[in-house]
Each structure stands twice: as C-alpha cells, then as structure tokens.
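Progress against Task 2.4 (sequence-to-structure conversion) is shown through the following example record, which the project officer requested during the mid-term review.
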Amino acid sequence: MAGIYVHIPFCKQACSYCDFFFITRKKLIDPFVDSLVKEIQSYRGTLYSDEKIETIYLGGGTPSQLSPDQLKRIFDALADSFSLNPVEVTMEMNPDDVTPDYLKSLLDLGINRASMGVQSFDEKLLQFMHRAHTKSEALKALESLQTAGFPTFTADLIYGNPGQTLEMLEEDISQLLQFDPPHISAYSLTVEPQTRLGKQVKLGRISPPEDEMVAEHFDLLDEKLNRAGIERYEVSNFSKPGKEAVHNSNYWKHENYLGLGPSAHSFWLLEEGGLRWENRSDIKEYMDDLSAESTINPEKLSMHSLAEERLMLGLRTKWGVGFEELKSRYSYELNREQRSWLDYQREKGMLKTEVDVLRFTSNGLKIADLLIVDLLSKS
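Structure tokens generated for the chain above:
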C-alpha cells in the first residue's frame, strides 16, 4: 500500500507554535498549483507510478485555502499520473474556511476524511496560539461536517498550554465529544526555537507549564477519551476501533509514500534498503525549478537503520513490532543486551510480548520516546 502526501503551504497567518514551512501570500496559489501539477506529472511512467496509491493526504499549511477548482486540478493530475485506488483521502482544514457548500465540493472530489484544526475552544488560548478562528467558528465547522455527511473525520487538540488549567482542558474535551468524533489527534504543546512562541519563551515572557502539569493534562485526556470509546493507538492519536488513520499508520509501518510540494518528504523501500528525500522549503525555488536538483538531502538507508527506525515508529503504536517482521524484512535481531533490557522493562510493566509481537503498555507509551532511545542505545 503506497500513499501520496501533498503539501499545501498557504496559511492566513502564522500560529505561534508552528515550525512547518508555510507562506501567507495568497496571490501565489495559482502559480503554485501550476508547479504542483508539473511535479505530479513528472512522476508519470516512473518506478513510483507503478504501485497502486491507496491513501492521499493533503496537509500544510492550510489546504482549505485552495478553491474547489484549484483542488480539482490537483486531483485530475494525480489521477492522470498515478494508479489510484484510494481507501482514504484526507484533507486538513481550518474552521474559518469551512462552509457547507465547500465541504460538499470536497466530497465531490473524492475527499472522504476531514482533518479539522480545532486546537481549542477557549478564546484566550486561541488568541495565545494566534489561530485565525474563533470558538463559534470551530463549533459551526464541526456541525457542518456532520451535516455534509463526511464518512469520517478527525479533530486536533493541543494541551499543556501555559495558563491552561485541567478545567479548561476538560471543557475542550467535553465540547469536542459532543460531535462524536471518530478520531482525535492530541498534541502536547511543543516549544520550537524559531517560532513566535519559542522566541517569547527565550525572552522570558512566557513560561511553559511544568512536566508534571502536562502529565496531568494527558492523564485527563486519556481517561475522558477512553470513557467515550476513543482509544489511544499511537502516542498522539486516539480513535474508535476501526477508525485509525490509514495514511499516517502506513508511515509508521514503512509503507512507500511520495511527498509532493515544497518541503514534502518521500520514502521508498527498495530491495537493498530505503531511499528518503525531500523537496526544498522554498516556494520560489519550487516554482522555478522542478528538476532533480530541487530535491535535497537524499538519503540511502541500510536495512539495519530501517530496522531501528521501524522499532522506533512501531513501538509508538498499539500494534508494536513483530520479531519475525524485523528478521524477515530487515534481517535484524535484538542482541543479548537488548533482550535483557526487555526483560527488565517487562518486570516494570512498561512493555509486554504477545506471541511474536513487542508492545509498550499504557504506562510505557507515556514515556515511549525515552524507552525507545534507551533500547536503541544498546544495539
């Protein structure tokens, strides 16, 4: 199962925490779409167009900044250049862009999963995050999703914000659960150095919450969602059974994917290892030059490196990683020190082994990144 990620880099304004590549010059949207179509067409007849594409994900930026006609041009080019058999087509959108008519046009294009960037319903937190939407717009957008009849959707929440109390987070969760979401992505606020938030923290104007408070936020979130039948299946993702994100899950399972658009990443598994590359994070260079030189950091990955990456990604999910998969797919086996480490963590209740599969427990998932680093340091 292969996937395509399309990066749409346009935003109304910069969120205070965001370090993704984006631009706010809407006049460049049309020429950008021209270049994106050319990039899509450049893959026609190549190794990458032979495999069936079963997931498509439009991310950003804010893909909902594009009109239905502009989106149709992109989907027409994809259909003309690749063998599409999509089981999931996701598009990220912001509440302030959503109308019933716009959502209907997305359904007509074949988009069957919406990703709504809610983040919070609290007006002060939305202002702190420098989000473009209001609480009422978020509520109205979620209502419109239901009215439009989207087959499935996900909504984002951010917790661990400075000044955010447990009561504020509980209210956010309760508001969202009123819409019976099949899937929720919940992220602890991360301070990135080059963002507006990062600069304010460096200047001492904002103090991030203590780790203990962030942990309490997560425990509340986990408890509330579990009661609603929305279970954690990855460190930051929760869903009802069977509603897990197919596209993102395939990243964690090392399925092939192409990244299209500026700053997009690609990964392709070959017999002798893996190949990863990325497009430049520069809109001018992207629109001026779509030759091979417009990609950067091509990286050949050995089977050993891929196996360690598969461990890292897989152990962040409820599915874990199979020992037989590591051996047959990557010729990788855990060494004696790693197996001793597994025994120790089993006794502590951080992980479990069921038949052939290694998984973290709920407690282990809370500190998954630390545990994974420790495990891989022993290889």
